[in-house]
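From the shared-data thread, chain only:
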Amino acid sequence: MSIYNLSELENDCSRSTAPLCVIGAGIAGLLFARRVAKKGQRVIVVESGYASYDPAIHALNEIEDPAERYSRALTGRYRGLGGTSSRWGGRMIPIGKHETEARPYLQQQRWPIAVDPLESYHDEIEKIFKVGDGPFRGNVISDEITSKYFPVEDKSLLNRWAKVPSFKNCNVFTLLKDELKELENIEIWLGATVCEFKLDRAGGRLSGIVARNFSGKQLEVSADRFVIAAGTIETTRLLLLMNAASDDNAFRSCRVLGRYFQDHLKSEVATINRRNPSLTNRIFGYRFLNATRRDLHLELTETAQRGDAVASAFAYVAMDLTESPLGYIKKLAHGIQKRQVDPNDLWQASKNMGLVARSAYWRYLRKQLFVPASIDLHLMVCAEQLPQWSNHIRLADKRDRFGVPKAQLEWAPTQTDERTFRSAISHIAGYWERSGMDRVCPLEWSPASSDPALPIIDNAEACAHPSGSTRMGTDPAESVVGPDLRCHAVPNVSVVSASVFPTAGSANPTFTIMKLALWLADSHLQGAPRREHAFVPSEITGSVVSSHEVPAPVARDQFGAA
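Structure, as tokens:
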């Protein structure tokens, strides 16, 4: 592996060529690049950020948000080696399969890609992140408390248990660094923000990109094929910029580029009254199974969703450790993992040795996190936001530091989302009563949860799980990429991001994104059928026809100009 920092090179303009170019060195980009490089193919990875956080680079994530409704543009996206995996909590859980199937009660079609083949990457991903094997649902946790309060079969709520890698095993670049060093045919460029696209107008393809840094140095990359793995919002912006470079001709036959932006909506619906602190801890404290933390993921069953004609939703328990001694212990543990111990954390922990001892007892003997009675437990509900035409990304009039248009997001929750929240709250209330938890740790509902006249969506916020704005499908007019993840309009450009998800499903998207990245790499390596040209204008009728049906004219601009 060769890593170049654009700002450290003497030349003002550098050039590189490879069969493959990946834009983005986050989870998806690095997993894809590693896979193809291990098979001997040369790949260039272009990354806007650096090995560590840079505030000026991070500011490039700023968006225009006229309604000031989307709050996660800067707190849910990070540029640099490892991308958002350098900051995420690491919660890994697959999307429910039935949510990728047709849901006629919601007028939602099935995903155009079969999800069963993606399961073959399950074990590989878990090994990379060093989490234990085993299922996500069923009798995952076999202790008496779990079996009593979280029955496997319930008509309304399904309990699943997410897997969370340790703090030191969250950043994908850290995990793959040694392996990447051994690969001579992978080249990573840092501090290189893609600002310009070079189009082969005769061929209807992307031939190159231009990336720049703040000092004006630039990198020109030529490749046969490009993979955009820059996260939902940035990936969508890049495709919009590519379209603008073609005078809005590249995606002229596509109605939906930037449309149907969606995110999970999060709201605190109740506080869990710790009437019995110890038993409440036994019920909701994080479990540890096979050295892996397991978090409760309590979601609406398919039966409940169908019965109420609502989208998916899931509940989880959150706790605020900011000012708690437990927070200092947690920071100390992270510091030990990083070998960067803060003396203040050590001092604070030393003042609470009783808590340290009790925490150790719960962790190693009960295989749970000990949560002091003084710490409140909050019940959070995340609702799947269904695709909405009016929620979309476009290019803004305002420009970033490179003079490139920012992304403008027009987004808001809807009454459909409100109905999903109300359904989840109703089923949670019934579940609490059926399980007997209402006698041990009753729920103290928030005002909005108790009063239907107070809309929950008014204060709900996005979960930083954006998706949908370059959706996949089989109709080039109603989707941006095909089931092969290649753009219908520019087939030598593939997208591996949650932006291709037609619907958001019942879980955070990262686990599914990783599977898609590995699947796309294997499809490429196995020589999947290639669509060399875009959909081109018919010279006779002006209608759109597929280039595999007629020979692509050599002298005609396939992006629309004669």
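Confidence is low (pLDDT under 50) at residues 531-556.
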